[in-house]
Target: Olfactory receptor
Amino acid sequence: MANLTSVSGFFLMGFSDDRKLQILHALLFLVTYLLALIGNLLIITITTLDHRLHSPMYYFLKHLSLLDLCFISVTVPQSIANSLMNNGYISLGQCILQVFFFIALASSEVAILTVMSYDRYVAICQPLRYETIMDPCACKNAVIAVWIAGGLSGLMHTAVNFSVPLCGERIIHQFFCDIPQMLKLACSYEFINEIAVAAFTTSTAFACLISIVLSYVRIFSTVLKIPTAEGRTKVFSTCLPHLFVVTFFLSAAGFEFLRPPSNSQSAMDLMFSIFYTVIPPTLNPVIYSLRNEAMKAALKKVLSKEEFSQRKLYLKAMFKL
Model:
């Protein structure tokens, strides 16, 4: 450990130094990553191919799946490789890219969840104006704003975080380059700029949370006025999955980033980091598919033999041209 101050990169401590546990961790993460990959790709494919799902709600869901796919790909493959090679080293360039994409995609995810809550609010509380408010141009601009906002957030955090002088051994007690853990390596009183940027990001995320809460308060007050149980069930089937995803993601991330700093890293800290980095991208496709009849019907159609035959004939015709 004496030479750690002279290296340009960092050492990710991960979950354990035991070789068997490292292999087990790699296998579990690999299975989880494959499930997330398959699930989110299915959502993207279904919402693209099935014309019945070409509505704003599924357009935003497709981009949420794309964000989830990219988000889990930022941290998990690197962690799997480190465990298999029994080497936690990550270069400075890799760490910079990981921090940028992690913050950018996490910020974009919060933004897209806010947009999705507004979409549900307009659809349920202002149904007569829905097509006017959520027209294709507005949806496209909203998604562009989501990606741009995430990118700017990632740039700010990355620029400020890696301008802070570091003191001591470059050991990160996490399975990825986590900003709260990296700030523990900063020299005294040299990370005030990062705290300012983090405060701005936290305030923005809190504003998104307030917007989501207000949207769902209005949604549920409207739903309770629906006279038929069937109508209420149909609305809840589209709103409850989104509400669960928002609650799970923001509560886990909030615990990690808002808790008081500690010089030691516990197993509980690592578990909470999994709760907002690995589990949401894996569960989101399952949650949205199981609670949504239109998604299940579209999935059956895409996976049916007839659909495969039609796609095959279409591709042959395209190649002949």
